[in-house]
Amino acid sequence: MTGTISNEEKIKGAYASLRASEKKVADYVLDRLNDVGHLSIAELSAGAKVSQPTVIRFVRALGFGGYREFKYALLREKRGGAAEKAFEPLGGFDLRPWDTLEDIPLKTIRVSKNVLDDTLKSVSPAAYQKAVALLAGARIIDIYCVENFITPASDLLNKLTYLGLQCRINTDSYLQQIAAGHLSAEDAPGPLTTTDTVKREMMFDHCTWDDDYKKITREIRSRLLELAGLTPDRYTVVLMQGSGTFGVESVFSSVIDGKVLICSNGAYGDRMAEICRWNRIPFAIYREPCDRIPSAETVARLLDEDPAITHVAIVHCETTTGILNDIQSVGAAVKARGRTFIVDAMSSFGCIEIPVEKWGIDFLISSANKCIQGVPGFSFIIARREPLIRSKETGRNLSLNLFGQWETMERDGKWRFTSPTHAVLAFSKALGELRLEGGIPARGKRYAENNRLLIEGMAKLGFRPYIEAEHQSPVITTFLYPQGVGFRFDDMYRYIKDRGYAIYPGKLTEVDTFRIGNIGEIYPGDIRKVCGIIKDFLQTGKEEIR
Known about the structure:
Layout: H1 7-14, H2 20-31, H3 41-48, H4 52-61, H5 67-78, H6 103-122, H7 125-136, E1 141-144, H8 150-162, E2 167-170, H9 173-181, H10 196-200, H11 211-227, E3 235-241, H12 244-255, E4 259-264, H13 267-279, E5 283-287, H14 296-305, E6 309-315, E7 317-318, E8 323-324, H15 327-336, E9 340-344, E10 363-367, E11 378-384, H16 385-390, H17 402-412, H18 421-437, H19 439-460, E12 464-465, E13 476-480, H20 489-497, E14 504-505, E15 513-517, H21 524-540
Parallel strand pairs: 1-2, 4-5, 4-6, 6-9, 9-10
Antiparallel strand pairs: 3-11, 7-8, 10-11, 12-13, 13-15, 14-15
Helix pairs in contact: 2-3, 2-4, 11-18, 12-13, 14-15, 18-19, 19-21
């Protein structure tokens, strides 16, 4: 670069001949000319919202051999009148003219150590485990790199090959684009509700009578109690074969010896009423519209008016819509009147902190395949010991008898009847991965971030949530069809499914809706991707939001 032409003039002079993506880099650099010299190529590409090869093409279009040369030119020009400030031969290294040769290795090591320490702090155990599982299960691993990253990429290739993994490396940006264009949906992993490591646990067979297997059952019960913040002197855990509904029916048919008040604002509250009809359990139902939560004041009034009611049941997260009911307030009203409180926490336990004893919950039901990220096969019931033991004489059937199941498990960890051994092994692994992620607070934070990004991304496309933000759960969101959109859900569902994702139809009859869940082994990148797929569907499917 000559001293007569500034970097700014050089960029402006070449601007007209740049590609559209390269102009994004030019605009970003011109707006931040004094700061760009301190940015890495990754930071600049992220800031300009382009790829790193685009940045390389941009600097070469200006006549520079590479990004490092371009960056140093910016730094030299910026420091033209500041001779007292040392030029940085490598970004991040604090070198001065008076440094001795002996100083340079010390400073180099110090900077490297700081970088490694910062990297270690930013590593997410769950994300790291996910990356390892994806690499281990890949048919072939493509490594793309440019400029300074060729050396570490080659080192990665050598290490992965040494481990027996099929790898290949590509350093040419043009060939990278061609290779990427040949990838299919099967080559790029989509979201997983369970990790590969959890799935692999199901490759092992266990006999239900085996002592090691019974030990796993005992450990699961103990860890669930710990996860709920409870002690075994007052609460216990019962595992029950079947789906979450099996667990709900087990509790209803086993422990209700009087009349139950069901608080319903969705399909799963209504299912409780259906369970009562089949089991001939006396019940009253308090209904609210699907977008409103049951009121603790109304529950209190109904209990005061009907002394025959002995139990109250409610769904915490009603996935009909994604609404999160206020079980704390309802529980306080129930306990103040000496009734037994049953909570269906199928889609909330494991991602939302639930102080079970403090909120007066006697029976909490959840499932292996929801927020703990196991696989379907059994439900679990966290039960207060006193009412559980009282239910010994009130059970209405054999296979779903809650006390009978608990009594057998309490003895030596055995299930009464054949258990889903593979699902149990997977669940044990999933509990360990939940702990590695940071427990319920960390998983809840990830789900909440997923949900926030989903609602923001869909809003840009014209989709509004059915539930108000105050009561929206971080688990699943129901979206209303925007005005002027006449697409068929089946068409959108197939379009999204063909690209590696799945969404749900709406459960409401009075308005057109669909639902998107964001729990499981799903991360913000997955949310952004699915929003992009929906945007593409709207643009290419002849259905435009007007």
